[in-house]
Design brief:
The structure holds two protein chains of two kinds. Chain A is built from eleven helices and no strands. By secondary structure, chain A is an all-alpha fold. The termini of chain A are far apart. The model of chain A has no long low-confidence stretch (mean pLDDT about 90). Classes of the chains: A mainly alpha, B mainly alpha. Chains A and B meet through helix 6 and helix 8 of A and helix 1 and helix 3 of B. Chain A: Its main location: membrane.
């Protein structure tokens, strides 16, 4: 009996939903729908922005290690008082890529629940793998998130350190991207990171068949740095 | 694992982006599923061109992005068309 009533109610709701409005005008429905759309979209976007805060990113236990490392870097404290938080480097600004990053970040919740990196030992075991995944994304996107704040075009090489100015000029000349040199800019590096980064560069070059990528140049640069 | 996640992310982003939302809206403008699918698929092709890439880099949009946007756009158009057929008498 209760099943019949439940089915009946659902059926009535379904039919009511698709029936022409008997008491509401088209104008009312349009205006109400418009306002409801604004409220829904505003709420959605507001919720999305909440997930971009540092408090949200570091609310999981497993984020404590990388938070501590990040707090020792220039992106956390610096002379200019400008701070780049987690989302500035890990979440794209462009809508479709931002949504993609948010959807892909669901895996972090899964691994938090599974305790994949719940101890310092487990974290160290996975450090290179996690770093490699981020490097792959950054290399593939030409360090898109770095370039939200930094651009070669806006750099004044005359006020940079000589070494930095020379390497930035070399990067422009050879088509390198930020992550090619700045792998450990916000988190500690695992042993064997250069070999792993070389692997990332080769993997992406093979995938894209992009003649513009100067793999040999990047490898040579990484080799020089390793020495 | 990453490639499956990448695909899921691309699909979700297309559904919540222009191909999905404008696709449903365009689909609701017609009772013809073919027209709805084609219109919305066009949005799927155009949206990576208009919104893809970024202002600061020159990374090529991948065929996967185009393909997913096209399929999601076409599906969204068909959903919009179904809404029109079910919910309107004209």
């Amino acid at each position: 009996m209760s099943d019949t009533n439940k089915r009946g109610l659902l059926r009535r709701l379904w039919e009511g939903f698709w029936s022409p409005a008997a008491v509401l005008s088209t104008g009312f429905l349009l205006i109400a729908g418009f306002i409801a759309g604004i409220v829904f979209w505003g709420g959605f976007n507001w919720s999305l922005e909440l997930t971009n805060t540092e408090e949200f990113c570091t609310s999981c236990h497993t984020m404590e290690t990388n938070l501590g490392e990040y707090r020792e870097t220039i992106h956390y404290n610096n002379h200019s008082g400008v701070r780049a938080i987690c989302s500035d480097c890990h979440v794209p600004h462009e809508w479709q890529y931002k949504m993609k990053a948010k959807i892909m970040a669901v895996k972090d919740v899964y691994h938090e629940l599974r305790g994949t990196i719940s101890t310092p030992e487990k974290y160290e075991e996975r450090r290179l793998e996690m770093a490699s995944a981020v490097w792959t994304k950054m290399k593939a996107s030409d360090s898109r998130e770095c370039r939200n704040c930094h651009a070669f075009e806006y750099m004044d090489f005359t006020i940079q350190e000589t070494r930095a100015a020379q390497n930035h000029q070399k990067a422009i000349d050879t088509g390198m991207t930020c992550i090619d040199c700045h792998q450990g800019i916000a988190h500690d590096l695992a042993p064997g990171y250069l070999e792993e980064y070389n692997h990332v560069v080769q993997k992406l070059a093979a995938k894209e068949h992009d003649a513009d990528i100067d793999v040999a140049g990047i490898k040579a640069f990484l080799g020089t740095k390793a020495e | 694992m990453l490639s499956i996640l990448d695909l899921l992310g691309t699909i979700g982003a297309a559904a919540l982006g222009l191909p999905g939302i404008l696709g449903v809206a365009l689909g609701m403008t017609t009772r013809n599923p073919l027209v709805a699918g084609l219109l919305a698929a066009m949005v799927g092709v155009v949206s990576p061109l208009v919104l893809g890439g970024s202002h600061s880099t020159h990374v090529a949009i991948t065929p996967l992005e185009y393909g997913v946007a096209l399929v999601i756009g076409a599906l969204a158009g068909l959903v919009g068309c179904a809404i029109r057929r079910k919910g309107a008498t004209v």
